[in-house]
Amino acid sequence: MDPITHAISGIALARALPGHLLPRSQVILLVGLTMLPDADYILTFISDTTYLQYHRGITHSILMLPLWTWLIYALISKTRSAIPAWLIAAAIVLHIGLDLITSFGTMILAPFSDWRATLDLVFIIDPLFTACLLIPLLLAFIWKRHARKLAIVSFVSMCAYLGLTLMMHHAAMQLARNDQPSALEYHALPMPFSPFRWQLIASYSEYYSQTAVDFLPDFPGNTLFFPDSFVHQFSGNVQPLTRLAWRQFPAMRAQTDIRKLPGTAFYSWFARFPVLLEHRSELWIFGDLRFGAGSNPDSPFRLEINEGKQPRAWLIWHGNQRSELR
């Protein structure tokens, strides 16, 4: 989830849970705590790939929660901004929960497992979801006497939105099962701009079938706030229910010739749906359907391998930003 939504959730938490109005210093502290797990950004000073490998790792781990709670409480317990340990834990859990509902993946069992858990309910940046949290908090500036009730309404609105996306996720999964009955696995990933837009992925042994559907085409969502070119970049493959067409992409796991090449081990772990996008001569290009590979030619987190005399691999983050993989 984006930092702004994490910060807003911290404000809502500060107003809703304690049962009394907290001083500004404690509100600021809680906002900081709901953003604290993303402090793993400092790993970028080691390397971009180190950050990518360990982001949403031990700082987002449920198993490490007691340790982080104890350390933070020990640091602040004698300050004016001290808050109860349970509220510290609630702020961290709230951050982890907001990350879990996206499709990026969160290593909630780190450091004992690098498995990335995900609920696939909300796109990583969803202004409509953020608005559910924010609008009741803004109304508290008008009805100050009801600030705590409105903060609770923020969380109720958030849960209602998640209920809608859960329902749409179920519908998307059922549609994938009906259209691809022989697939091994099915996935439905939220898309930007609307809770009714979903990417469907059916997994087979040697390839993935992919499509995207809009269950409510007339709902503009938040497309009104973005340029048409930007919206089309993420919506070019979205289709109505009546004209659903699937595309096939060769799975990376089926390309046996590249298993010993640099970067393949890391990318096989990081990418949820790694597919072959291009192969010519000594060049291999892979992408992750999770990030729009196959629909967006500039999709982030692509893998490029050059099989020269000295094979080299690069992770293409976005545009011209790239990191070499070993």
Shape: globular
The structural class is alpha+beta
Low-confidence stretches: none
| End-to-end Cα distance | 29 Å
Rounded mean pLDDT is 91
Q: Strand content of the residues, in percent?
A: 15-25%
Major sheet size, sense and barrel closure: 5 strands, mixed
> How many DSSP E strands?
10
Helical content, roughly? 25-40%
How many domain modules?
A: 3
Specify the number of helices: 9
Please trace the helix and strand order, writing H or E for each element: HHHHHHHEEEHEEHEEEEE
Q: What is the CA-based Rg, rounded?
A: 22 Å
Any overview of this molecule?
It is a single chain. This protein is α+β, with helices and mostly antiparallel strands and 326 residues long. It folds into three domains: 3-119, no CATH class; 164-250, Roll (Nuclear Transport Factor 2, Chain: A); 252-325, no CATH class. It has helices at 3-16, 24-35, 48-54, 65-76, 85-100, 127-139, 147-179, 228-235, 264-270; strands spanning 185-190, 197-203, 207-214, 238-239, 247-250, 274-280, 283-288, 302-306, 312-318, 321-325. Strands 1, 2, 3, 4 and 5 form a five-stranded mixed sheet that branches. Strand 8 (302-306) and strand 9 (312-318) form a beta hairpin. Helix 1 packs antiparallel against helix 5 (85-100) and helix 1 packs parallel to helix 6 (127-139). The longest helix is centred in the middle third of the chain and has 33 residues, at 147-179. The chain is globular. The two termini are 29 Å apart. The model has no long low-confidence stretch (mean pLDDT 91).
